[in-house]
Amino acid sequence: MARTQIEAAREGTVTDAMERVAERENREPEFVREQVAEGQAVIPANTNHEALDPMIIGREFATKVNANIGNSETTSDLEEELGKLHTAVHYGADTVMDLGTGSDLDEIRETHVDYSPVPIGTVPLYEAVKRAESPEEITTDLLLEIIEKQAEQGVDYMTIHAGILAEHLPLTNGRKTGIVSRGGSIMAKWMEENGEQNPLFQVYDEICEIFAEHDVTFSLGDSLRPGCIADACDDAQYAELDTLGDLTRRAWEHDVQVMVEGPGHVPMDKVAENVERQQEVCDGAPFYVLGPLVTDIAPGYDHITSAIGAAMAAQAGAAMLCYVTPKEHLGLPDEEDVRDGLAAYRIAAHSGDVANGRPGARDWDDALSEARYEFDWREQFRLALDPDRARDYHDQTLPGDNYKEARFCSMCGVEFCSMRIDQDARESRRDSRSSQSPKGSEQPGDAGEMKHLESTTDLESSPAAEVNRPPVGTHESSDDSGDENWPDRAVEGTGDD
User: Fold this and answer.
1) Measured between alpha carbons, how far is 305 from 303 in angstroms, rounded to an integer?
2) Is 234 one of the annotated binding-site residues?
3) Where along the chain is Zn(2+) bound (predicted)?
């Protein structure tokens, strides 16, 4: 029996996970199988993750969004991390990465896997540093031990920083911000102190064997991604990318799924170039992008600076976007930061799908626009990306239920509301014509007159993928507390750590 999704796909088998993905994407199961078999898409689905609702990442499918969560030594415990997980899924995260570096990492990770319906990703190198107590003390045996343990726990994909090599390090000397990837800096320090090649590169085939056994997907880390726009597209970044292309093909030889990470901070005119180069070098393996941040001037607003680049990357062919929160470069995000980051990135992902003409992707936009024009406030809120926030903002100035029927908002008021004026003009002209002419008769000037507008979008029959139709959080009920299987139950009896 095939052990991995790509192995089954290559053998011509449509797995249960592929069937479920086809349903969620409104695509044919055979097309899903072909994309996985060719390495153009991945279904991160560890065989030990029983709570998983399978999803797919690939440029031919709806653009996905990842949310990073995780504790530190000084911030967050199990209960808070579960709250972040709940918030992430509630606001539309397609995957969640646990980047914790604090206490109780195993307990938090296992609980996430137990309850999360979306794939869980990790960076095992972080745990290795914590166990070894300093980067230079890490051993290949320790790395393999941790990777195997996390695979057995049910982690669906892991960032492996195997692409940064000793010969790449001198290429970073002319940079403004050096090596900004945590994993990249750890591996660079290890190589400098030990005078040897990257240990993850040395045991890469052994890692592939572990991944094949549990169907863990590679997320090949971009250790030398640029940390400012001045460093974008330099020799260091592209040298590592070439290595990642080689590592992609080596993983495929082991029947292991692969996606590739990149690129960090990139000016707008270089975003498409980065996506296109990765697709060429890595033979079309899905590109999983952080940002990219298109300017460096806005600490506190980097969910915006990066969402601009993310939308451009999605249009250019990036398969998954790793969100950035307002706390980027400043601190550990809390639940509200997770919410803001996901909103920015769901907008970027959806915008990319609309621009790329994904089937039905624009239907959601059209349905909301029609509700807005008709002053159907309740329907606007229902269709909004974040219904609670849209309703709250409206209620701040017009809180009464009677204003949910109003034909204006507080920005323009009654007198200057353009849509009310437009509607009244159309209605007045129609009423005037009806009283003056027999029904169905034509009058001079019909072709140039403003006519009544009809709402025609039916989201129930839309061919759009699940992520391009409301509600955004598709894994739980509309009740804010979540359904009976959600993590709040996992907290019972655990106490604070």
Assistant:
1) 6
2) no
3) 265, 329
Q: Is 373 in the same domain as 256?
A: no
Question: Is 3 a known ligand-binding residue?
Answer: no
State yes or no: 224 annotated in a binding site: yes
Same-domain pairing of 317 and 379: no
Same domain, 210 and 191: yes
In terms of residue numbers, what domain contains 391? 362-421
Residue 369 belongs to a domain? yes
Query: Do 187 and 285 belong to one domain?
Result: yes
Both tokens assigned to 432: 């005037």
Rounded mean pLDDT, 28-45: 98
**How many Å apart are CA 159 and CA 181, to the nearest integer?**
12
pLDDT in tens, 136-173: 999 999 999 999 999 999 999 999 999 999 999 999 99
**Cα-based angle 46, 42, 246 (whole degrees, multiple of 5):** 105
Question: Residue 142: CA atoms inside 13 Å, Cβ hemisphere, count?
Answer: 17
Q: What is the pTM of this model?
A: 0.91
In CATH, what number is assigned to the domain containing residue 214? 3.20.20.540
Task: Answer yes or no: is 222 a known binding residue.
Answer: yes
Q: Are 345 and 372 part of one and the same domain?
A: no
Annotated binding residue at 233? no
pLDDT category, 493, cuts 50, 70, 90? very low
pLDDT digits (tens, 9 = 90+) for 283-330: 999 999 999 999 999 999 999 999 999 999 999 999 999 999 999 999
86 is in an annotated binding site: no
Q: Has 223 been labeled as part of a binding site?
A: yes
Listed in sequence order, the residues at least 6 apart from 100 whose beta carbon sits closer than 8 Å to its beta carbon are 69, 70, 71, 72, 76, 81, 108, 109, 126
- Is 228 annotated to bind ligand? no
